[in-house]
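Encode chain A's predicted structure.
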Amino acid sequence: MARPARFSVEVADGMTTVALLGELDLSCRDDMEAVTESLSHDGLGLVVFDLGGLSFMDSTGLLALFHAKRALNDEGRMVQVVGAHGSVLKVIELTKMAQELNLSP
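Encoded structure for chain A:
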C-alpha cells in the first residue's frame, strides 16, 4: 500500500528545511503546492528539500518538486535538494534533472 508523502518543515538560522517522507506522486501534488505556497510567504533565504525519507517518486512528484523550486526561485529564494537515494535518485538522474534541481549529495 502506498504511503503518500508527508512534509515536515523546520526553520533554523535563516534556512528552511522541508523533509519529505513516504511517496511523492500524483496524490501529493496539491500538498506540495500548499507547502510551496506557505514557504513563499515566510521570506527566509535558503530552502532545502530533503528527499532522504522518500521511498518513491514518480515523474509527477519530480515535476511538483521542480515547480516548487522554480516558484521559490521566482520569489528570490535559493533552493537546494539533498538526500536523494535509490529509486528517487535514479528518477532524477534518468531525467537529467539533477542540475535543474540543484541536487547535492
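The two ends are 29 Å apart (CA to CA).
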